[in-house]
Amino acid sequence: PELNGDGAEILMKSYACQRRTPLKHHNAFLTEALEILAQNAEFNDNEGRSVAFRRAASVLKALPHRVKSMEDLRCLPCLGDHSQRVIKEILEDGSSREVESTRQSEQFQAMKALTGVFGVGVRTADRWIREGLRTPDDLIRTGQQLNRAQQAGVQYYSELQRAVTRAEAELIMAIVEAAVNSVLPGCQIQLMGGFRRGKEVGHDVDFLITHPEEGKEEGLMSKIISWLEEQGVLLYQKTTRNSYVERLDGPARSASNMDRFERCFSIFKLHSSASRSGSASTSESGSACDSGCRAVRVDLVVSPFSQFAFATLGWTGSKLFERELRRWAGQEKQMTLSSHTLYDSKQNLYLRAQTEEEIFAHLGLEFIPPSERNA
Ligand code: ATP
Ligand code: MN
Ligand code: MN
C-alpha cells in the first residue's frame, strides 16, 4: 500500500467528491502535463479521453507528497496506462515527448487561441482552423461573420486574457451588491466559482443571487441589468430566462450539465484607478473601453431560495468536482443531482436541502469545504 512520509497508509478514494483537494499541491509538474493532454482531447471532441486525463491529474493533486517514482503510484485509482506512461517519462526524462509535441503543435496552439475568444467553442474554432485561420487577429483581418458574443470577445480579447485578481473580484462584488440592493432589498449575494474555492485569480467572477422570500427573485435579473446599464457598467450582456420546471416523475434526462436558472453572461467595465481622476468615459452607451478601462467577464445567476443550496453547490466547482458528484449520485446512489434539485430514483422523490452540508449527507458523502474542492 501507498505510504506517506510518516509511514501511514494513504487510502485514495476513487471519486474526486470523496477526497479533499487543496488549491496548492505537490505535483503540478505532472498535473500540468496531463491537463495538456486533457485539453487536447477536448479540442478533438473526445470527452471520454479528456475526463480520463483530468481524473488522473486530480488524483495526483490530492496526494500529500510529491511523486518521486512509479512505486508511489501503486494502489492509486484512476491512473490508466496512458497516464502512467506519461508520468513515467516525466519522472525519468524530465518531460514527456507526447506532451511537448502537443504543446508545440500548430493545431493545439490555434485551438487554444481561438477557443480563448469569449463566445467561441471547439466546433467553431475547428471550422475556422480548417479554413486556415489561426489567431483572433485572423478573424478580424478576414472579416469573419461573428455573433454578438464573439464580437465582444474579439474586441476585448487582450483585456479578457488577463487574469482577474481577487481585488478586482471584490470591487465587482461591491458593484453587484449596489445594483441588487437598489432594485430589491434583502437579497443574498454570494461569490461563486474559483474565488469561493480560494483561488487568488480567475478567468471571470461568478455570483449567485437569491431572496429568502420564494418568488421575490422572479424578474430580478432584468432589473439588475437595467441598473447596471444605466450606470454604464456593462460592455456586453446576454441574459437567459429561467426555464426550470420540476417534474413529478423526476428530472428529465438531459445531455448537458447546463442548468436552467435565470442567468447573465456579461462583460463589466472597471475604471483602473489611473483614469478615475481624469474626466474619462462619460459612458452614454456603455459600449466603449478606453485605455484607462478594464474589461472583466462576470457571470450572474439568480436562483429561487428553495434551490439555493443546490445552486451554491453547483456553481462552486471545480468542474471536475461537479462532474464527479453527479457521477457518484447516479452510479452509487441511484440519484440525479443538478444545480436545482436532488432526485432519489429508489424512493421516487426529491430530497430537499437548505445547506450544502445537507446535500452531502443525502448523498452519503463526507462534507468537503469549498477550499478543498479544487479537484
Ligand atoms: P475560473 O477561475 O477559471 O473562472 P471557475 O471554477 O470559476 O474557474 P467557471 O467556468 O467560472 O470556472 O465555472 C464556475 C462554476 O460554475 C463551475 O463549477 C461550473 O460547473 C459552473 N458552471 C459554469 N457554467 C455553467 C453553466 N453554463 N451551467 C451550469 N453550471 C455552470
Ligand atoms: Mn469562474
Ligand atoms: Mn463562470
Draw up the topology in text.
Layout: H1 28-43, H2 47-61, H3 81-93, H4 97-104, H5 106-115, H6 122-130, H7 136-141, H8 148-155, H9 157-161, E1 164-165, H10 166-183, E2 188-191, H11 193-196, E3 201-202, E4 205-210, H12 220-230, E5 234-240, E6 262-271, H13 273-276, E7 293-302, H14 308-314, H15 319-333, E8 335-337, E9 342-344, E10 349-350, H16 356-362
Parallel strand pairs: 4-7
Antiparallel strand pairs: 1-3, 2-4, 5-6, 6-7, 8-9, 9-10
Helix pairs in contact: 1-2, 1-3, 1-4, 5-6, 10-12
The structure holds adenosine-5'-triphosphate and manganese (II) ion (2 copies).
Mean pLDDT: 93
Strand proportion, as a percent range, falls in: 5-15%
The CATH topology of the largest domain, please?
Answer: Beta Polymerase, domain 2
Shape: globular
Oligomer: single chain
What is the fourth-level CATH superfamily of the largest domain? Answer: Beta Polymerase, domain 2
| Spatial strand arrangement across the major sheet | 2-4-7-6-5
CATH architecture of the largest domain: 2-Layer Sandwich
Number of helices: 16
CATH class of the largest domain: Alpha Beta
Q: Uncertain regions: pLDDT < 50 for 5+ in a row? A: 274-286
- Tell me about the biggest sheet? 5 strands, mixed
N to C succession of SSEs:
HHHHHHHHHEHEHEEHEEHEHHEEEH
Helix content: 40-55%
Question: What is the count of β-strands?
Answer: 10
Q: Which kinds of small molecule does this entry bind, naming each only once?
A: adenosine-5'-triphosphate, manganese (II) ion
Distance from first to last alpha carbon: 23 Å
**Computed CA radius of gyration, to the nearest angstrom:** 22 Å
Helix and strand content put the structural class at alpha+beta
Domains (count) = 4
